[in-house]
Amino acid sequence: MDPNQHIIEQTKKWIRDVVIGCNFCPFASKVVKENRLHYTVENAADFAACLETLLNECIRLDNDETIETTLIIFPNSFESFEDYLDLVELGEKLLAQNEYEGIYQLASFHPLYRFADAPGDDPANYTNRSVYPMLHLLREESIEEAIADFPDPDSIPERNIKFARQKGLAAMRLLRDNCL
After folding, report:
1. Is 49 helix (H, G, I), strand (E, B) or coil?
2. What gap in Å lies between CA 78 and CA 110, rounded to an integer?
3. What is the tens place of the pLDDT at every residue in 158-169?
């Protein structure tokens, strides 16, 4: 199997087993069932190449309405969560500079994801702990449509935190690690 395809398959398993399986994103199932989630693997390790890929994926979304959302996977870079946060910040600036603010937004996932005020061993961190560092590029219009029909969308993060803490650290770690 092509190494990039293997990375995509691991990511798809994480989406199915963790994101959808734990209902962390109640909107993900529909996008996956409709095959409207695009996966891109970026093997470069430098910021410039990774940001260029982000911009190219914005252009892809501009030109292909059949794609609802894109995951850009970085299997060979950003092992440090701090370096990854720098990428997220630069990515958000890139979106603004290219007049994509309000059109697309970034969601962030990383194997060492840690919420700002959470201890490293908080199971809640696993709501955003993925198998690889990745950026999730979403259409803002689609987010607005999805949450308009969802009762109390502001409760989703708190519900996810509660779920992960009830499952516990070992269970959440095992669930994610079984995707590799």
Report:
1. helix
2. 9
3. 999 999 999 999
